[in-house]
What does this fold into?
Amino acid sequence: MNFGLFLKQLREKKEMTIRQLAMYANVSHGYLSQVERGERGTPSPEILSKLAGPLGVSYEELMTAAGYLNGSSTVESVIAKNKKLYDVIARAKDLPDQNLEEITDTLDTLIELHLKRLKNKKSNGDNK
It folds into this structure.
């Protein structure tokens, strides 16, 4: 099934018109109509995040249906499951490479710190 048909079925299941969905998601109704008819490509992850709530489905489900995720535990699915993480990463797209490198190094340091804390908790018998 193509994504446009999937989107239409979700919308109709919620008994919404295209205009209602567009209003709730803050997306153009003309654009949604074109997607449903297969005249436009798959919506961006940003648009999918806007559609998930009004359609009553998870962002991850829309990302999978749109072909962005394969349903396995990949890096992409980790990001897709956490909308805040996705939004933070999406905001970084316009930064110069040097800034991205600094942010990546900082994030790597934070992740290592948290992994060490988890390891210490497990070795001390603390399962919280």
